[in-house]
Design a protein that fits this description.
Blueprint (H helix, E strand, L loop, with lengths): L13 H14 L5 H11 L5 H13 L4 H41 L6 H25 L10 H17 L4 H42 L4
Helix pairs in contact: 1-4, 3-4, 6-7
Length: about 210
């Protein structure tokens, strides 16, 4: 089992959580999803890529900002409520101070072409980062219980509903999310049934090999 599951690290203290999330927040112009995935999965190895996808999926379903939900989940996982609060404080405190300062400075130049061009440029970079992260995380699809084809189908349907037809996100989550959960539940149930049958067959084979006289 150890060869299949990589050995993971964990934050040493709530202070480390606070510092890490502060540094992440200061790097996350337009969103920290790409940076969080790189920092926690690739660099610090606090979770596997599959675990990150699962936690991020839950964070998206929960009300509130996705990244804030994720930081609460990660902090709470290691240090309970104090860890969740430390992670959230690290995520919000420094950016709040910077945003307040920029709001004062930006007020006088908000309508200038240079400022508008800079904002649009940062938006394009943020979109590229999110797309790159999505492609990187898509490598977990072959391990999805629904199967890769079904998972891709739901991804395409989600894009069509939200990106093209502009359905509200909550309705897309309630509709496609419920159906995908139902399919995944039955897929896992069938897998467990097969594993139980294989285990019973193996036990019977071992019993027969011993013979009645042993």
């Amino acid at each position: 089992m150890s060869s299949l599951t990589p050995e993971l690290n964990r934050p040493k203290s709530k202070t480390e959580l606070f510092v890490v999330f502060t540094l992440l927040a200061l790097q996350g112009f337009g969103g920290v999803l790409a940076i969080v995935q790189h920092e926690f999965v690739d660099r610090r190895k606090w979770m596997t890529k599959a675990q990150f996808v699962e936690d991020w999926s839950v964070a998206q379903v929960m009300p509130g900002p996705n990244v804030a939900n994720l930081c609460l989940m990660i902090g709470g996982k290691y240090f309970g409520l104090p860890g969740a609060m430390a992670a959230l404080a690290g995520l919000l405190l420094a950016p709040l101070m910077i945003v307040l300062a920029l709001a004062i400075l930006f007020g006088g130049i908000a309508d200038s072409p240079s400022a508008q061009g800079a904002l649009k440029g940062m938006g394009a970079v943020s979109a590229g980062l999110i797309m790159a992260t999505g492609l990187k995380l898509s490598t977990t699809l072959p391990q999805n219980p629904m199967g890769m084809k079904t998972a891709i189908l739901f991804a395409v349907l989600s894009f069509v509903c939200v990106g093209i037809f502009r359905f509200p996100l909550i309705w897309a989550l309630l509709g496609l999310g419920v159906v995908s959960c139902f399919i995944t539940y039955h897929a896992l149930k069938q897998l467990q049934t097969k594993l139980d049958a294989m285990s019973n067959q193996s036990s019977k084979s071992e019993s027969n090999s011993k013979g009645p006289g042993t």
